[in-house]
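Thread amino acids onto this structure.
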């Protein structure tokens, strides 16, 4: 177990561990004393110590050595072994350091890409990219992984039509070969061009489908060829015929590439096969949920021409009821009757749910919410939800009952009872609100709704505009409203493309208070989103107006029905509700007309962290249709977004560009909240 290397005694790690275990046994002192006493044979000892002679060691040691005190023996023994093991430990550490040849990646650059996204190249690589965060550990370099990545990048280039491309790399080692900078250079060359694109549809009516196939194919004559587009086109052709009653259509294709001329001839031959119709519909897995609740979500009837799109939509309808954790659809083909049996397998979820949530925002500070919901309440697919909420601005209890399929599919009737105490900058009060809303969805993106709202408000204090308001401490209103929503955005939480149009109007049909009030109120809002080179551009424009009717004074509209602006989701140059006509104490009075505009550019920084730059403008006016471009207020700023599963956590920093004299000392605003501003 011992060996002599480089002119000194060395131990391996295994030998050191063995020695440590050996020396910790009960005979440690015996061996230690025996070895060390053998080094003291030249020493003269004058008198023995009787206490040591009582030990069992006396039979094993020469009598002339028993004169050494026990404490001295163990002190010398420990010192001897420390001197022995110290250089050995240094040797082991040195040998291990010499063996550690790990190289870390300090940076990776990819140059020469033209029309292929860098992220597509990164996704194909195994070699990890170092983090932009300086505190994160650098990834280890593996040359074999890099060599394989070069081949993968070449494959990606071929998939995009660059068959003659070359990929090379260089390594720049530094810091004693402990770090390496990798540079990957791509020579794409010229892409392969689609020379001819032939489409043939077999069967009795080929001309009816050729033009439709041409529209869904992602390739075009005279344009670059792409393997990805070529394979995707086959899938789209299959889906096209599946939606037209041909679920077993056979799509054959061929692409002949000439590297010399850099051209490709593409051909698609489609055999639709037999036309099929919908047959029986079966449901499996619903033990507590009535089958009729699933049947009403089906978009087709037995005997209809088969459509894959209709089965997918029916599956989505069943899942969106909220009664199931999963919905899987299978098909069985009856080749004798040319029918398709569809089978929906569902997994039921728990019908009762209790949720507790909390958060923080600069406007309402700490917020908390506790809710209980019961799905399939009293059967019929109804949902009952009771929610209690608390914040510095409002505290309340809300009960909501939803009845789906009131007047057919995609329609619902909702009943709400809302008891709330508000503590807003302009007023404080307790309100009781009963609301019934009927809504109907058309074409998946158009929704019409109307509601009847009965409201009683007990106003404890408010900022008054007229003598009538100072004498009015309660308001009872019965209001009818009508609205429409046209939504083509790609996400409710974090939209990146599409548009949304919202229009709403209301009018009281009965007023009982110390002074009668009658008015017509409308609000219109347009949002538009577009993604350009990874940057999401967003625009919102909002306009609203209240016109008093009959003998109602324009200033006698109840304060909780007026317009207010300012805050994290409005004009970010002002505090919550403070973009409004103000009294002498600079408390908000609200107004009868409003215009607000917002423009944002949202872009990513790294991982889940993003940033925003924005420009807001607008104002609130006391009179109806009091819009004035000369009185618009402007604010600009920037913000951060951290994207989570519940939406982005945001921090916005706004700066008022054209303040009044009283506002110059309060031009800078900070807002923290959850969700995009719009």
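Threaded sequence (678 positions):
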């Amino acid at each position: 177990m011992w060996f002599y290397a480089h002119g000194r005694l060395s131990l391996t790690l295994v030998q050191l561990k063995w020695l440590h275990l050996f020396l910790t046994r009960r005979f440690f002192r015996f061996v230690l004393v025996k070895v060390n006493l053998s080094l003291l044979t030249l020493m003269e000892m004058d008198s023995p110590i009787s206490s040591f002679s009582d030990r069992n060691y006396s039979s094993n040691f020469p009598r002339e050595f028993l004169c050494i005190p026990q404490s001295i023996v163990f002190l010398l023994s420990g010192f001897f072994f420390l001197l022995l093991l110290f250089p050995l430990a240094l040797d082991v550490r040195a040998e291990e350091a010499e063996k550690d040849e790990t190289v870390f990646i300090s940076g990776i650059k990819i140059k020469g890409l033209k029309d292929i996204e860098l992220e597509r190249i990164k996704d194909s690589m195994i070699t990890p990219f170092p983090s932009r965060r300086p505190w994160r550990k650098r990834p280890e370099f593996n040359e074999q992984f890099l060599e394989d990545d070069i081949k993968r990048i070449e494959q990606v280039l071929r998939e995009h039509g660059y068959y003659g491309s070359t990929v090379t790399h260089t390594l720049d080692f530094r810091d004693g070969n402990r770090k390496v900078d990798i540079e990957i250079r791509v020579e794409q060359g010229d892409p392969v061009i689609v020379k001819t694109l032939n489409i043939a549809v077999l069967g009795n009516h080929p001309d009816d489908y050729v033009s439709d196939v041409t529209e869904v194919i992602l390739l075009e004559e005279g344009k670059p060829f792409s393997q990805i587009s070529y394979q995707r086109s086959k899938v789209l052709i299959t889906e096209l015929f599946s939606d037209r009653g041909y679920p077993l259509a056979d799509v054959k294709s061929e692409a002949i590439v000439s590297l010399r001329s850099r051209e490709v001839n593409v051909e698609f031959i489609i055999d639709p096969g037999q036309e099929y119709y919908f047959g029986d519909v079966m449901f499996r897995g619903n033990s507590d949920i009535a089958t009729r609740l699933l049947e009403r979500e089906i978009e087709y009837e037995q005997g209809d021409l088969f459509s894959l799109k209709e089965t997918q939509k029916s599956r989505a309808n069943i899942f969106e009821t909220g009664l199931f954790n999963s919905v899987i659809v299978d098909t069985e083909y009856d080749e004798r009757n040319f029918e398709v049996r569809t089978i929906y397998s569902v997994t039921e979820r728990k019908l009762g749910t209790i949720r507790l949530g909390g958060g923080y925002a600069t406007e309402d500070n700490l917020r908390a919410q506790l809710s209980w919901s019961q799905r399939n309440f009293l059967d019929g697919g109804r949902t009952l939800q009771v929610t209690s909420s608390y914040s510095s601005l409002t505290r309340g209890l809300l009960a909501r009952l939803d009845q789906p399929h009131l007047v057919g599919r995609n329609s619902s009737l909702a009943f709400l009872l809302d008891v709330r105490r508000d503590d807003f900058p302009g007023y404080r009060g307790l309100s009781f609100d009963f609301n019934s809303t009927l809504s109907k969805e058309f074409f998946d993106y158009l929704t019409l709704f109307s509601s009847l709202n009965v409201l009683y408000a007990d106003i404890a204090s408010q900022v008054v505009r007229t003598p009538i308001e100072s004498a009015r401490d309660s308001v009872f209103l019965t209001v009818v409203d009508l609205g429409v929503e046209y939504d083509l955005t790609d996400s409710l939480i974090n939209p990146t493309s599409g548009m949304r149009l919202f229009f709403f109007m209301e009018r009281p049909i009965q007023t009982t208070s110390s002074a009668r009030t009658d008015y017509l109120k409308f609000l219109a809002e347009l949002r538009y989103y577009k993604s350009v080179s990874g940057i999401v551009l967003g625009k919102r424009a909002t306009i609203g107006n209240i016109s008093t009717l009959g003998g109602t004074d324009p200033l006698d509209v109840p304060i909780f029905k007026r317009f207010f602006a300012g805050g994290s989701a409005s004009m970010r140059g002002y505090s919550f509700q403070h973009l409004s006509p103000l009294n002498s104490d600079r408390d908000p009075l609200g107004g009868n007309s409003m215009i607000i505009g917002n423009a944002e550019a949202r872009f990513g920084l790294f991982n889940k962290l993003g940033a925003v730059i924005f420009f807001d403008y607008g104002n609130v006016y006391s009179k109806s249709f009091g819009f004035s471009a000369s009185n618009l207020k402007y604010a600009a700023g920037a913000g951060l977004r951290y994207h989570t599963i519940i939406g982005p956590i945001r921090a916005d920093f706004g700066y008022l560009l054209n303040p009044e004299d009283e506002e110059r000392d309060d031009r800078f605003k900070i807002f923290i909240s959850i969700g995009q501003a719009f």
